[in-house]
Amino acid sequence: MRFGVLGPLLVLDGDRDLTPGPAKHRALLAALLLRPARPVAVVRLVDEVWDGRPPASAEAVLRVYVSALRKVVEGIRTVPGGYLLDVDPDRVDAHRFERLVAEATRAGEAGGRAEAAEGLRAALALWRGPALADVESDTLRRAHAVRLEELRLTTVEERVELDLALGRGARVTGELRALVAAYPLRERAWGQLITALGQAGRRSEALGAYQEARRLLVGELGLEPGEALREAHERVLAGTSTRAGQVPNETPNETPPDIADFTGREHVLDWIRRSVPDAAGAPVHLVLHGPAGVGKSAVAVHAATALDFPGGRLHASLGGRTPEAVLEDLLRSLGCQETAIPAGLDGRVRLYRSTVSGRRLLVVLDDAEREAQVRPLLPTGPGCLTLVTSRSPLHGLEAARARELGVFDRDESVAMLAGVAGRRRVEAEPRAAARIAELCGGLPLALRIAGSRLARRPGWTLEHLAGRLEDERGRLDELSAGDLAVRGSLALGYRALSDRERLLLRRLGALSAPDFAPWAASAVLGAPAEETLEALAGAGLLQARGLDPAGQERYGWHDLTRLYAAERLAAEEGPPAGVLAAAAPEILDRARRARTLLLPAEPGSGLTLARTAEQAAAAETALLRESARWLAAERRFLVATVADARRAGLDEAAWRLAFYLTPFFELGAHREDWRSAVEEGLRAVRRAGHRNGEALLLRSLADLHRVEGRLPEAAEALRRALGLAEPGEAARVRYRLGLVHLAGERLSEAQACFVACLAAFSAAGDRRGRADALRALGGLRRDGDLLSRSLEAYRELGDPRGEAAVSLDLAGLLLDTRRLREANERAEHGLGLARRLGDRLPEAAALTVLAGIALAEGRADVAGQNAREALETFREHGDRAGAARATLTLAEALLGLDEIDEAFDGVMRVMGEFDALGDRRGRAAAEELADEVRRRRGLRV
């Protein structure tokens, strides 16, 4: 199978054209073909396929597109975080083109001009039109087509140069006429045409071509022809048919000294080394971008000192300087006299490009702010490399490749600390070193400062410095040494922002969350914030982290940037309470609405929100999934906001937000977040003196204790809640107490609670409470009628999650009575609902029930498959009880498949787990299965 992107997209299998028709399919395939045998992140594919404007469902739709392409193209594999097209790069015309150009260039450098010319001619023959001609993605074209087209044009000129050196001018005049017609301002092509016409004896046409070129350049650009073009003209006048080479100026070498203790960055350095163009290749421009203090300049200098560029190395610190000022310095470095340097930008650009023409240069442009500042400084000759460092990725810089420089991981951070402070000293206190690395956030500047402070104070232990860094309020003060300071580095970026950008950045300092979506930024700003967020990301103070599960772009920042923003907020606006108070209504409203979709009842009141059948159907198919996705995306932000609100004295907001999140925590088994939010909420509600609010959070805490198997703690929390709760809430607390008694096998006490709750809920008209109580009582009594009534109640509520749970209860009851067909129907129905809602734990519970039904039907292979899938999900979510049940079912399936040793190992392990969970029924079932396994082992022996 062969692929083409040098022209319209092409997929050929022998003589069969298998090119996909849909535009999005073509864009996706092109994105993979341009990076063959390399993983491509989903976020990058989404950006390229939808051209920077993806819908909320982009990732899901992308999977559909991948599935469709796999029917046509072999080798598309799923890899962590993305996809990979496992294909030989030489089967893709663009990569074959670059290989042939590189081989021809080497042949030319070895003296084989004719061989090189033919090699370049063969490479150019692969082109069928403009690169990516029918691929509807400007993002892809900017990233790849511009570079390929530039390389194509340079290759044409290099091949013509070889033909001219071989005296073939007469053969290439027609081609050159077409080339200058297509690119009328390209001086090199005009010079080659003049030379070719001269070689062909067409002197008058050659002189006419020079006049035409001069007219175009002066008329369009206001510039006289450059030195190379004038030399071609003079050679024709002199009757010379070959080009004279340009004598280079003295070779400049301006790269600053390398850092002696430079650490890590091997992947980035390798990327730079692999990007160096061949001597005849198109110039390459690389952008290293990232937040302040991440070490961009150090990487650029370290890489530059190790690369050999015979034309020299130039270095310029850009900062806020104009291109005119920088060009003046560069021209002086290249040997130009001050009196010869033009006054205006256009003249300096012209002279710069003429001066570097024919020289293979490396240019380091440090601390660029914007694209317009960089464009005039880029060398355009073949074989040149430009390294640009910037806080922004400079997406608008044509034909440039960008790479983000991230912070160090823990091992790299400790290694850098050791390089500055001393290896033995760091190795003597590994825990303290790791803590310093964590508190510095892996930021190289912060680590260098910390190491310098230790080096200057040999009496300090690493533990002492770690203790000083622990206090957030003084951390930026500690990270200062001589002229190095994290605060100063961040302040430079802050001062360069607009008033609105500074306002948003410092107000974001009221938040302790590691990342946030645009809606949250808009809430703290009090106005739409999308464009301002993009500007802050462009300035390197925030990082765009791609789309989250809800389809929102998320932004994050380094923890030291957060501390600096909090400092500016305190200094310029005061404590964070004002910002949080203004944002709290939006945050609470969104969380409350998401909870309402998860749990169709008004939080805390026991009053059901009735839905029509149509509304329920819509909620089941869209809104319920949407709420779960949104909560999954915002989980860390919302948990952090509970603590932020409590610390700011916004007690009402803190405890209500903690309570609203409870159903989501339970659904996803996010137990540590659950514990953290409830504990913060309890501190707030007790300070506020809100008795019923405290009862609500104690009920939530009891739910957490119950799912963790800590039944005495759960019962104690519920007893305290009963003394605080209002009448409507008291019934819900008592219902939870019944669940605790049921888990502890105190069945009569559990039944008394459920009966009392059913009466209370029915009298109060609480339809949700009634549905819950009917389910609990039906499960306890093994009563199918009660469970069926509960099922109908959940359906009336428009609550598919409740419907799914009761369906599984009924399936288990039907399984016990050997009504297997009906049991399977109920379980499949529950599984379908869970999958449509995206609820992984209920899905695993349904698979466990289906595994039990398959065992009863004698289908041990199906049972084993379902049990394994369920076990994987339970383990992933840390659900020990679910994992124990799935393990027991899997052991029984293995026994049915006569895999006795594996079954024995599984049942032995799970017996101890049931003991740890206090599950006597599970233990008894495991012992019964263990006896059967032992019996079967004995028979086998």
TrEMBL record:
Asked whether the UniProt record includes DNA-binding among its keywords, one would answer yes
Keywords from UniProt, A to Z, are:
DNA-binding, Transcription, Transcription regulation
What is any Pfam family matched here? BTAD
The UniProt entry, under InterPro entries, shows: AfsR-DnrI-RedD_regulator (IPR051677), Apaf_helical (IPR042197), BTAD (IPR005158), OmpR/PhoB-type_DNA-bd (IPR001867), P-loop_NTPase (IPR027417), Sig_transdc_resp-reg_C-effctor (IPR016032), TPR-like_helical_dom_sf (IPR011990), TPR_rpt (IPR019734)
Q: Which PROSITE patterns match?
A: OMPR_PHOB (PS51755)
Q: Which residue range or ranges hold the OmpR/PhoB-type domain?
A: 1-87
DNA-binding region at which residues? Answer: 1-87
What residue ranges are annotated as transmembrane? none
- Family affiliation: Belongs to the AfsR/DnrI/RedD regulatory family.
* Official protein name in the record: BTAD domain-containing putative transcriptional regulator
In its UniProt entry, the species of origin is given as Streptosporangium jomthongense
**Upper lineage ranks?**
Bacteria, Bacillati, Actinomycetota, Actinomycetes, Streptosporangiales
